[in-house]
Amino acid sequence: MREVKFIYKIMDSKFEKNLARLETLVMVITTLVMLTILAIVVGMRYVLHQDFYGYNEIVLADSFWMYFIGAAFAMRREEHIKADILKNFISKKGGAVMRLLADIVQTAVNYAMVVLSYNLVASNFRAWTITPLWEIPFFVPQISIFISFVLMAFYLTMYMIRDYNDLVVLFKGRD
Amino acid sequence: EAKTLKMYIPNAYVKESQQAQGFQAAVDQIKKDTDGRVAIKIYYGGQLCGSYEDAIDECRNGTIDLAATWPTKKYDKRFDLLNLPCFAPLGYKQYGEIMFSKNSIVPDFMNKVMTEVGVTSIGGFPECYTTYSFAKGKRPKDFNGFNKKNRSLRVPGMPPYRDAAAAMGYQTVTMDSSEMWNAMQTGQVDGGAASPLEECWFLGRDIVKHIDYNKFCCPPTWIICNNELWASFSADDQKAIIKNFYDSSMKVLANLEKKEAEYMANFKKIGTEIHTYSDEEIYKLHTELRKKVWPNYYEAIGEEFLRKLDKQVSAMKP
Amino acid sequence: MIGIAILIIIGGLLLGTYIQYAFLAAAFFLVGTLGYKTSFMLTYGYSVVNSIVLLCVPLFIAVGLLMNQSGIGKSLVEFVSIFVGRAKCGLAVVAVVASAAFGSIAGSSLATLSCIGTIMKPRCAEAGYDRGFTAALVSCACPLGLLIPPSAHMVLYSWAGRQSLLACFLATVGPGLMLVFMLSLCSYFILRNNPNIKVNEKIPLPELLTLARKRTGSAIPALMMPFIVLGGIYGGFFTPTEAAAVAVLYTIPVGFFVYKKLTLRNLYDTLVETAASTGVIMVMIFCIMILSRIYIMEDLPAMITEHLKNFSDNKYVILLCTNVILLIIGMIMDDTSAILLCAPIFIPILEEFGVHPVHFAAIMGVNIGIGVLTPPTAPSLYFGSNVMKVEVAEMLPTTLKLLVFAWLPTLMAVTYIPALALWLPDTLLGGIM
Ligand code: NA
Ligand code: NA
């Protein structure tokens, strides 16, 4: 068993840093857009007595980018929720093995979601499904789901290899 | 034994609703007539899909087998046809003539679009007339006129509804149907468009105090089936399915007027005002509204078709 | 099949996968074995998350984070302590009441915990409170943030269960207030014979009045918030989503110009934090709803109802069973998944036995509150230990006391006295009881 060293290079690379920066930029902009639109809706109703018709279509398209890029960013920081029930009852080595197993399961499931989300985008692109008022194509928000699962696949794979390395180091220590 | 087929019906059709019961009756009879070869389970209250819009997609892909749903612009702009206002001013008999009768140009048109979208069209199923309903003291002075700028009305996020309400002079407010009753209750909007009397009764009877029974719209749901599944039925079974849904739709249609009279009586009992129109009044109102709203849809649905339909509607005089 | 799927979920959780993947693995297993096509999964997930009502979630998260940054929490605590400053368990009551007050603005319990916890920690230490006690008390009081409206949890319940959000918000107020009382009472009994606790010196009345005036003055912008949010919703100015947005937009200038704690830098960080936390919840919703759709296609609620009916047809027995099941689920699952999974399944079952969904909202709310405190999966407990820098083991004795003598009685009361939940929504909105 050998460590896969180049993963640390990737984790520390400029590419990874810029990716994170891009993600935060999308998150901040989409959150601000959401707040602005809702403020305009309320303002238009009480100040101008007018309806911002179909605002829901815009704000929901925006929110998907916020949700899913946010989720990818949280995956980068490993902030998603897990139960971690057995953590306190298991030896260090046992824990490392379990973590790697968990990594493998979730990475595999995530790759399946990459495929499914690609199919979702592709089928809505082909059918050119649109919203009733602004005629926003459905794939516009849905691309964020695809990108998110791709990014999460990237981070999950990276951390899986890191955890594998940790495991190798841990077991080598015994010899 | 045949596998039980899954059929979607929308949120609003809870188990007790007339439509849900109509679908159930059809499905029971279909099972009998096909000696159990076609067994359908109805999932009430929109349980099967995230939104009724998805029903077409899921039916096409075969995750659900059949659906009764409101087709929307999402899949084809021509589907806005069913949401157009004022195609049946004179009551359910005319509604039946326009939407379901072989003499009408509507069913063929719908079948054609459904085929193009990729599902098998079985036929329409009647919805009740939708109304405008208002919280206490929030009705406009005059229901008949066209200037109601001082009254806000929640409309669903579909252009024909907005156009109709705007043509009558309301200040429209778009919001999710799930927020409508709350918003009327707290006074955020004065009223809401597009709820049938039955829905007003079940969801809003503590809130609604005035109802404008202006018959402006009654979009039928359309029953569809997955193509491959449909092709797997024998010709006789196909006939039995179409026939039973059609018969049941006619029964529901015949019953709608009676049921609606019951709801009106219920509302009157609890002191709710219901504004109704004479045939002459509503004929005039609807003619005017069609003139204002329908041309917006010439491009999407087809000018020639809509002019023909307009003629078909106006031909029936009070 | 469904049994195996549940085993997969539990296996995934035990293994320590992120929660959404445990649910997805179960969903893939069911789709595979039951012969469904996979195409519906994402279509369905997309269309359930595509909801204006759910926008409340990020907005309530943003409000909580911004209040932490902007110093609103501190002025709330100062204000509350005017009233209960001198009693022996005074600071404990301040912590409980401040959690409730903060909860009336913030939409989440963790926001309540991190804000009130950070503020109370040094004060309680100074007054001679045991660290474990303080941490446990604040952790046990923080679910008040989800019982006192507005609350992201109730948004999720009403959304997943298709119930009136306004009514669900009001249903948890009764049990919330009862819990404020019970937690304070328990604190009194735990602390009354503790000789280490210092009580504030008596302040002469004129000075006290000046102090009160000053604190009230600086608390006014903070106290305005419940009026804006709840008054805005129930007064008919905004939908809940709009009210949450208005609250965010209100906090920003207040934080910048009134309390002068907010900077552009931490505003930016807060927006990033908001999107990240929201992303975590939304992906969970997305995945859990896919599984719950499959359960509905397989008619799980009807199956459970059948079993329950064979077991008993007494409403009170069924409610007891429900609570036991929910308590177990609360131990294993986190709060969001528990609500999303249980609301659509339990509402039709309980309706069959004559329990109003709005009543169940309150039962569910209290159960979720207990669930975030009961190990092994106890987000509030762990978060509390993290915020207060106290070992979980040190917190456990007090946590256990508060669970048994404050939380459980509240759960029993809300379960068997429906009026505790239903009186307020029925009075204000009508048509429930
Ligand atoms: Na709250
Ligand atoms: Na727990």
From TrEMBL, chain A:
Species: Synergistes jonesii
Lineage: Bacteria, Thermotogati, Synergistota, Synergistia, Synergistales
InterPro entries: DctQ, TRAP_DctQ
Any Pfam family hit: DctQ
Membrane topology, from the record: Multi-pass membrane protein
Ranges where the Tripartite ATP-independent periplasmic transporters DctQ component domain occurs: 35-163
Family in the record: Belongs to the TRAP transporter small permease family.
An example Gene Ontology CC term for this record: plasma membrane
Transmembrane segments: 21-46, 58-75, 96-118, 138-161
Subcellular location, record wording: Cell inner membrane
Keyword terms of this UniProt record: Cell inner membrane, Cell membrane, Membrane, Transmembrane, Transmembrane helix, Transport
Name of the protein described by the UniProt record: Tripartite ATP-independent periplasmic transporters DctQ component domain-containing protein
From TrEMBL, chain C:
GO molecular function, one term: transmembrane transporter activity
Keywords assigned: Cell inner membrane, Cell membrane, Membrane, Transmembrane, Transmembrane helix
GO cellular component: plasma membrane
InterPro entries found in the cross-reference section: DctM, TRAP_DctM
Membrane topology (UniProt): Multi-pass membrane protein
Residues covered by the TRAP C4-dicarboxylate transport system permease DctM subunit domain: 7-420
A Pfam family annotated for this UniProt entry: DctM
Cellular location(s): Cell inner membrane
Segments crossing the lipid bilayer: 6-31, 43-67, 91-120, 132-152, 164-191, 219-237, 243-259, 271-296, 316-346, 358-382, 402-424
Domain of life, per lineage: Bacteria
PANTHER family per record: SIALIC ACID TRAP TRANSPORTER PERMEASE PROTEIN SIAT-RELATED (PTHR33362), TRAP TRANSPORTER LARGE PERMEASE PROTEIN (PTHR33362:SF2)
Protein name: C4-dicarboxylate ABC transporter permease
